[in-house]
Amino acid sequence: xxxxxxxxxxxxSNMLDVMADxxxxxxxxxxxVAWSVGAARITGYSSQDILGKSCHILEGQNCKGFRILxxxxxxxxxxxxxxCNQECKVLGKDGRELYLFxxxxxxxxxxxxVGGAVGTFTDLTSFIVNNQKIAVLEEQAKSRESxxxxxxxxxxxxxxxxxxxxxxxxxxxxxLTGESGTGKELAARAIHTLSDRKDKPFFAINCSAIxxxxxxSELFGHVKGAFTGAIRDKIGVxxxxxxxxxxxxxxxxxxPLLQLKLLRVLQESEIRRVGDDRGMQVDVRLITATNxxxxxxxxxxxxxxxxxxxxxxxxxxxxxxxxxxEDIPLLVHHFMAASSKTFRREIGDIAQDALQRLIDYNWxxxxxxxxxxxxxxxxxxxxxxxxxxDLPSEVQRPPRSKSLKPLSSKAEPSLPPDEEARIAEALQxxxxxxxxxxxxxxxxxxxxxxxxxxx
Length: 455
Fold this sequence. Notes:
- This protein has a five-stranded antiparallel beta sheet with strand order 2-1-5-4-3. It has a five-stranded parallel beta sheet with strand order 9-12-15-8-16. Strands 6-7 form a two-stranded antiparallel ribbon.
- The longest helix is centred in the first third of the chain and has 21 residues, at 125-145.
- It has 19 helices and 18 strands.
- With 455 residues, it is α/β, with parallel strands linked by helices.
């Protein structure tokens, strides 16, 4: 059997029909003249459905179909060699949107006039749809690991993200609690950004950073002559944040008198500038935060009970970093990427012992301290990989060993079982260093050596 289609053109029809791609021809007006089995399989349109029809049959509401084909037939000049390569989206017979990659070549008659075109197309639908699914999954994975500028995949942070979303859905008064450096201001910004107030101002005030005598004026504003130095009227942040969000950090450090004035804002949406005898309506969402136990302060009398219950409507607690150690590698790489831009140094790797030390460290300053540690390492690093010795000295030191019950210094014929276990644990904690192990066990090195000989 002759398989050379140039010598045996009769086999071309069979060859075209066994191809996975679709093959078709159109006349000069864009009407379909031939339609292969592959084209029918991809689009769902049989030859009977489509022959003699305009190629516009494959168009839909969101699908341009073969519209480019008619433009190509009318003016093939811009396309080199009379060939058009094009990705397009067409509408299948069953209503599905199909992604195709096609090649169309002009056919000319003996006078050089456009007589029609021959084209092929490959079905890319499954490839593109799967890529879109992957993109969605990647985006979902990112969203599970970060929320606005907060980073974390731990269950504790996922709960924080959930409550932040809930808080953003209404104007409920939110109290953010947690140790210093856990990201309370970032959480407040996240609530604002996701809320209906996102296009309005966001102001953050640290109540402990401003003297009490100035804080009231900073918050509510003042009128000219209200106090020495008040040479003109000044608006406060409650007015400046009109329609937006005001975040008051370290709310537990405010005086009971200022708490009373803030209570009026929360209850009546009204402020009174210092030195003014008239009230003024404001529309501001208030988010407060503290790293102190407000219940203890309330018992001590430094926080008003009515104020506490008014700000403690919806509490969100930011966990300390030591309570979510599984997030530390994620945070480390996040801060490394940020520091690479800040310091203009491409450092994308960190030694395993350095990363482990970062995981083991207790982080009293929480995420803020971790960020500072990475920036410190970028200053001291020599090369393209952060090492243990690039970290701050307090982080380099191994975590303090767990204290052990002291050993008896008396000589005994045999070691009690509990002493044997304590010696083994001390040696493990000190990597076999007998001097350090003796210190842990509260005995001299000689006593420990004698007891080890009894093992």
